[in-house]
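Retro notes, structure queue

What went well: the backlog is down to a handful. What didn't: a couple of records were mislabeled last round, so from now on we paste the full input next to the output in the thread. Example, using Capsular biosynthesis protein from Neobacillus mesonae:
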Amino acid sequence: MESTLNLIDIFKILKKRWKLISLFIFGTGVVSAAVTFYVLKPVYQASTQILVNQKTIENQIDYTLLQSNVDLINTYSGIIKSPAILEKAIDKLNINISWEELNQKIKVNNQDNSQIFLVTVENTNAEKAVEMANTISETFQNEIQHIMSVNNVSILAKAELKNNPVPVRPKPLFNITIGIVIGFLAGIGTALLWELFDNTLKNDQDVEQYLGLPVLGSIQKIPRVHKKGIRDLKGQKMEEETIVS
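Corresponding output:
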């Protein structure tokens, strides 16, 4: 038996070990589904929209000021996740976590050249996520006036609790698909390794190659014989041999 495998040999091995590969696919699919539905906790998101806009004295559009407001968003993104804001938000929420833990639950996103940015909070409780997002945004709106002596922040849209909130994580279909793909690859790898490390002699060519001796004869596979009872015309039970190869 050759130590290397060509493409045709690989297809033959996969066809031969299809039950093993199917077992891996089924096993990893079941495990990923079980972990998704029974181990991982669902995570919900809630977002608020915040506008950064400073009006001029004449209440006219100042494009220089608009660009300044856009540039400020990067600074505001850092401030909203700082202890100065989060510690006050924790006091209002009356929750027993540190500001570092709350910081990990917050994401601040803004679009290019936009004066609007989103404050998104993740939590395993949908109602709590909404409450946290609104409280953090309101705390930021109030505190930024004292921190930077400006009044250019307003909340465009508050987070709202939906009737049937849908978690953003985990994603069952995605997780199960990944599990099936991993099982498929693991099954193929196991089948190929099994075949490569299998040193048994399977045919006369293997005997000639490994032993260096000619094959004088071979014993064919003996078919299995099953007996089943039949009855003759008089109703007597007889035995009939049926050969199944």
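Agreed that this is the format going forward. Reviewer comment attached to the example: The chain has three domains: 7-39+170-197, 44-157, 204-241.
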